[in-house]
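User: I'm writing a tutorial on reading structure tokens. Could you give me a worked example: one chain, its sequence, then its tokens, then a sentence or two explaining what the tokens reveal?
Assistant: Sure. Here is the example chain.
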Amino acid sequence: MSVTKVIELNASSVNGVEDAVKQGLKKASATVKNICGVWVNEIKATTHGDGSIKEWRVNMRISFVVD
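And here are its predicted structure tokens:
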């Protein structure tokens, strides 16, 4: 039998959504082991005054198997 736990976190990147997800997973994997999946449930962007994108932000849930 195995148990999976889910945590929710926010991550950001100036380089895009995919990089924000990668950065979030990289940071989480420093302390969380056995990561088995990620669900991006929200994407946002902050903008400069002219409307250009300043930073991408994602809210995501990471699932991992509990030892």
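What the tokens reveal: The mean pLDDT is 97. Residues 42 and 65 are 23 Å apart (CA to CA).
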